[in-house]
Amino acid sequence: MDTERLNKILAVFEGKRGGLISILQRVQEEFGYLPEAALSSIADFLKLPPSQVFSVATFYDHFYLTRRGDHLVSVCQGTACHVLGARDILETAEKCLGIKTGQTTPDYKYSLERVACLGSCALAPVVLVDDEVHSKMTVRKVKKILTEDLDDTETRT
Amino acid sequence: MDKSISIQSTEDYGINSAESLRLLRESLIAGEQTTGKVVSVCCGSGCMSSGSEHVRAAFVRGIKDQELEDEITVKKTGCHGFCERGPIVIVGPEKIFYQHVTKEDVPEIISETLIENRVVERLLYEDPVTGQKCFHENDIPFYQKQRRIVLKNCGIIDPTSIEDYIKVDGFQALAKILSQMTPEGVIEEIKLSGLRGRGGAGFPAGIKWETARNAPGEEKYIICNGDEGDPGAFMDRSVMEGDPYSVMEGMMIAGYAVGASQGIIYVRAEYPLAVHHLSTAIAQATDLGLLGHDIMGSGFNFEIKIVKGAGAFVCGEETALIASIEGRSGRPKPKPPFPAIQGLWGKPTVINNVETLANVSRIALNGGKWYSEIGTPTDKGTKIFSLVGKVQNVGLVEVEMGTTLREIIFDIGGGIPGGKRFKAVQTGGPSGGCIPEELLDLPVGYESLAKAGSIIGSGGMLVMDEDTCIVNIARYFLDFAQNESCGQCTPCRLGTKQMFKILRDITRGDGKPGDIEILLELSDAVKQASICGLGMTVPNPVISTIRYFRKEYEEHILERRCRALVCRSLIFYRIKPYRCKACMKCLEACPVGAIIGAKWQVHEIDQSKCIKCGTCMKVCPKRFNAVECVTGRIEGLGDKSE
Questions:
Q1: Chain A positions in Cβ-Cβ contact with residue B269 (cut-off 8 Å)
Q2: Per residue in B188-225, pLDDT tens?
Q3: Do A62 and B311 touch (CB under 8 A)?
Q4: Phi, psi at residue B456, to the nearest 5°?
Q5: How high is the ipTM of this complex?
Q6: Domain that holds residue A46
Q7: Which residue in B has a C-alpha nearest to residue A76's C-alpha?
Q8: In whole angstroms, what is the distance from residue B73 CA to residue B43 CA?
Q9: B327, A126: Cβ pair inside 8 Å?
Q10: Are residues B125 and B240 in the same domain?
Q11: Which residues lie below 8 Å from residue A51, measured CB to CB, with a gap of 6+?
Q12: Residue A106 Cα, gap to closest chain B Cα (Å)
């Protein structure tokens, strides 16, 4: 882990109270996840027991302790999406990527997540790929998106 | 104080008095009248994911190509609430409502509507009942029964332009209270209005403010709860994205009334556009002197910062939200002490939901009496519902309290699509309940829905038709609850887990007689023995579905029957041999090779291989209609299920 990059983030929070969650968010933005060494350094910086930092990092869904894929596929499991077939969409995504929900492909290209609700209920079912919302998904559409994206990355690398 | 500031351009003004705000507003309105035609493209999250950003770019390009920039302004607005019809574009002084606009439609709109003043008929909304084309938003049945108070600026103003907000009476309420009212007077108006919290619990806002005002201490806080976690509810997102200024103004008024100089907006991390628009709004207001020190020369100081959530449903509960802002895990604390007395950093803190705060400036400007006359004698004002699920017109609707469920679902929502039958409506998300058809004439209100075993909650309204399985919905909400329980109270942590397991077993055909009674017993324990609103309410979906749809539970348990044909373990696909033409379509399409047969040989499904995906039924030609889906104990079927 790059200590310099971490210290730069921490410096911004010098003297501010209640910064733990914001610090974790910034560190995760920088590194893509929360490396264990970073958690220890953050605990030192805030003069908190490491257990408290670890407790917060594991309490919230948005924090990851392991490296994530380059692309994050989030399948919405909100109420509106659920009654319109979100379960099939999630299962198809699992099949296409060859991983279970919550896992990352071995080549670190994709991580697959379920989210509780993206607030795009009028366009259900929805899938979020990185920052792009794909609306009114069907099994066929999800297959298309995930295989196309895969091909894209393959030609780029 | 300099009251005679002259405004040259929108770049170099500052607002230091109510008078200077008035002058600025007049000059902005005068400036607008000369600019002529406006194209408003909805750039809310919904329309954006349908491609509205491309549409907007195409307008900008097209108008530039034709050198019409001086005559036509392209503006982006927030959400119209009818997201399903997006991208939505409102064109010209006539405000023609175009739906499902793509970038390919743009040249035609420019040449036809903007230049020739002709309507592009095919982009108009067509009333499915009368077949009539609707020219304006207000002609569409979806909008006709609505009363937009909170959403009045959404879809009208550019959510990133503070000038736009000032033009529609923005900050007039703030100017009024700062120059003419005492903090106590503001609280009295809010109390008079009858405004209750729109986040779920429905606590009277005025009393909350008064408690915090009277609490001892110099330092006090106003927190805007934008942690909209209920799956199926998205009104707060729309308001924050489409009219962030109203939320901000509401917080400032609350700050003045309570005696707080610091505001915090806690926003769900899943709402990046809301964070962006709120940050822009705060920066603009600070530049104008509307936030900061000595606002409008009144001596009132107020600043606002944004805190992003980190993904925990329970943080919508106020004590958990405070813990999260303080940098701890979001675990609720027993109340009292209430946050209004001992909240953030131990100081008196008012926490109001986004929609509640957006109501405040309307009340401050028009008076508490005006607001109290909207709605019913017991439930004042309006409420935004997110109407989703199996309903024709999906979207956000703001109606007066007391509107009936039937009016919302059938008149505004257009009823159930595909000629299906209405089954139930689930209100209030994971904390709410299911309301059956016989109660459709129930007027919406805090008490009326509570009596029916549900709640208004945050305003989620999920419509279900005959193809929705009630037990599956209960299972869904308990799955959500057991994931989101913070784990502090044992009955909630373990009770929701056990309830989920029982419901899962029932949907898998492993239900046992007596399960319903155990579910009710557990529900009672979880409700009674949890300290926060989550534990106290999450059994509601189970209790209410058992209350109204007990028969469906019993069918699942005793007959292995799912009448909605949803629970996979209880359904079977089979091919009617006398209808099968052995066309090989299903045989080739089956993803697991579960279909036996050949050309000229009637097909049959091998139940031990079948995963019940329904592909065979979908591909079987309509004229053969040879595949059927059955449920219940059927001879020869069912013993080999998962």
A1: 25, 62
A2: 999 999 999 998 889 999 999 999 999 999 999 999 99
A3: yes
A4: -70, -40
A5: 0.91
A6: 3-59
A7: B231
A8: 15
A9: no
A10: no
A11: none
A12: 25
